[in-house]
Specification:
Layout (H helix, E strand, L loop, with lengths): L12 E10 L6 E10 L2 E6 L8 H13 L7 E4 L2 H13 L5 E7 L5 E11 L8 E2 L2 E4 L2 E4 L10 E3 L2 E10 L8 H7 L13
């Protein structure tokens, strides 16, 4: 069997960014805001917003919103995931019963990838009904004339699994976001965030 040497490009990618501040006297970092972006869709979460009363809930809301969106099968990149953001993400998401994490690490304990799985029970009843001009198929609403994506959640009995993979862009592009923006002549550059 000969394998094709043709490369394919996966354009199902997005970015996540988390901003923290230092709690005075303790040196502990706390999430202040976070966001995710796919193409032109940007979602921003700030501490104190609705559904974000504390840093853990902020990150949980961010990931649940991605997993409940049409981007649930995408790969997301976080710059410096392995050395910093993964600690905050793992600490928050391990508090949620229906979210499971899969971690891949190198021999030197460098985090290579983090997969976030949301296991959800399927609603009971007929899932191919028409409701309000939309097809309800396996707990997902599709408008008439729009095909369901080929990557529907995997089913096992009455549950389905939605997942996203997170990779560290620093492992591919070594440098700070500010220096990378300069190196690639980007019009928009990384600004300064008041971390204290």
């Amino acid at each position: 069997v000969e394998l094709s040497k043709e490369r394919t490009q996966d354009i199902r990618i997005g970015t996540i960014d988390i901003e923290t501040f230092t709690i005075e006297g303790s040196g502990k970092q706390m999430v202040r805001s976070a966001g995710w972006c796919v193409k032109d869709e940007i979602n921003i979460y700030n501490l104190g917003d609705e559904g974000c009363p504390n840093p853990h809930q902020l990150l949980i809301k961010l990931f649940e919103d991605i997993l409940n969106s049409k981007y649930y099968s995408y790969t997301f990149y976080i710059h410096n995931l392995a050395n910093f953001d993964s600690i905050l993400i793992i600490d928050s998401l391990t508090r949620v019963d229906d979210i499971k994490l899969s971690i891949v690490m190198k021999d030197d304990n460098t985090l290579v990838s983090l997969t976030v799985n949301k296991i959800k029970k399927r609603l009971e009843g007929n899932h191919s009904n028409m409701q309000g001009g939309a097809v309800i198929y396996k707990n997902i609403r599709w408008r008439r004339g729009i095909s369901a994506p080929s990557s529907l959640p995997k089913e096992q009995g009455n549950i389905y699994n939605r997942k996203i993979k997170i990779l560290d862009s620093l492992l591919m592009l070594n440098g700070s976001l500010r220096s990378l923006a300069t190196d690639f002549n980007c019009i928009t550059t990384k600004g300064h965030f008041p971390h204290k």
